[in-house]
Amino acid sequence: MTGEEVFTETIARDQRVEPRDWMPDGYRKTMIRQIAQHAHSEIIGMQPEGEWITRAPSLRRKAILLAKVQDEAGHGLYLYSAAETLGADRGDLTRRLIEGRQKYSSIFNYPTLSFADVGVIGWLVDGAAICNQVPLCRSSYGPYARAMIRICKEESFHQRQGYELLLTMMGGTQAQRDMVQDAVNRWWWPSLMMFGPPDDRSPNSAQSMAWKIKRHSNDELRRRFVDMTVPQAEALGVTLPDPELRWNAERGSYDFGTPDWAELSRVISGDGPCNAQRIERRRRADEDGAWVREAAAAHAKKQMGIPA
Ligand code: 3HC
Fold it and tell me: Residue 19, SS3?
């Protein structure tokens, strides 16, 4: 059998494609694109919440938030390693991100205005990530699927810690309850946009689903997220900012309004509230860390007896 026949058979049988297997160039390119977008999202995603580490209201909240932000860094490193199994270079991917030639999730281009945002990000953003990424544990590319298993376990801790923080605040003062509702109003629609454009405007979905990289469409996962989240919002006592949200008994799921797709494309193309500061911060961190990378590379060469 040719490499192509083996690849086709592997996908048809729902088996895993591994780094040394033959794969179409388009498959390799799509996997590097998606894994890089995910890795960049994890690293940039450290910024909005990281800004609240020094302002956490208690040592306990600070420790939880520190652990979460540290997890996101680990997810990013994990995913860059998965991209490297496809021949990508981590430094090159970082340059593409900084130069705007690769994407990261739009959600991290919104500001975190109060500590309630930390809870809402955990609950909605990490909740949406779980919805999106649990099916990716069955993605056809082995290293990505295996990375997802650990990442999803940690994301579920993130989602729970966020929801627990919000439950605490909702049991607090009216000012705290107002803070939570304000954060929900600001993060609900951008969270729905994390799942990507609607299926009829998604240039990559059809091929990604044929290659079993994606297991469900953008709209299907978005709907799943809404169905999962509405009862949680009711238990929390917050209102989701969508006047069209209502239970559709016939279909057995919620009807909901349409996200502002023009806003999504604006934010994706760099015109969101925080895009410039997120990328500038990432550029500075890359520059400041250059000496560490050089020292580590020189040390590794010395250890292997390779002349400097
Ligand atoms: N933000 C930024 N870019 C987005 C986007 C968003 N919310 N939604 C779609 N896009 C981009 C896609 O990357 C693609 O651009 P490209 O072709 O230049 O790469 C284009 O818009 C068209 O979208 P498609 O739906 O056709 O693209 P995909 O098939 O790649 O689907 C996706 C988009 C659903 C985000 C998919 O890439 C995916 O599932 N990625 C997995 C990783 C992920 O979920 N990343 C974001 C989550 S953040 C996170 O997990 C951090 C955690 O700590 C919360």
Answer: coil
